Amino acid sequence: MCNSQDSEYYCAFNKDSSVCNGDSGGGLFYQMNNQWYVYGIASFTDFDENGLGCPLKRPQYHTMVPNYLLWIKKAMEHAFSPYDKYSYFNYV
User: Where is the Peptidase S1 domain (predicted)?
Assistant: First the structure.
């Protein structure tokens, strides 16, 4: 079902639920040893046979958060003020 070989995205598939249009940015979570983790951020999905954006039995693609942990850590280490003339998030 998921044919993507792209290392930036994680392909999720669930026959009973789906991401929908407007869900972009939402998390794909998993629980391990009573601790919750975010693994993916909803990015895009296919349309169903009616052209609607909440397709069951279709792959959903999530940006892989672990690929960005270093960037997230660096960005969070830099405090910035809305009064600064530039953002520290532009260093990547």
Answer: 6-72
